[in-house]
Amino acid sequence: MTPDVIDVKTQPNFELMVTFADGARKLFSMLPYLQYPAFRPLNEPGKFALAHVSNGTVEWTDEIDISPDTLYIAGQTAT
Length: 79
Description:
This protein is mainly beta. It has one helix and seven strands; from the N terminus they run ββββββαβ. β1 and β2 form a beta hairpin. It is globular and about 30 Å long.
C-alpha cells in the first residue's frame, strides 16, 4: 500500500517535490501529463502553484488531483 502524501512543493518546469508518510521524498514531473484534458487547466498562469495536500494525495482543485500511487511509483527519489 502506498503511503499518504504529507507535503508537496511546486518546483520550476511543472515538477512536484512530494513527501510521503514513510519519509520518502520524490521529485515528480507533471510535464508529460499536461497534454491530457484532465490536467490541461494546470497550464493556466498560477494554476499549477495551487498544488496542495488533501486526503493523502496532491490536488489543485476539487476536479484535478493525482494518485499518490502514481507519484510514488513514477517519482524520482530525492535526497
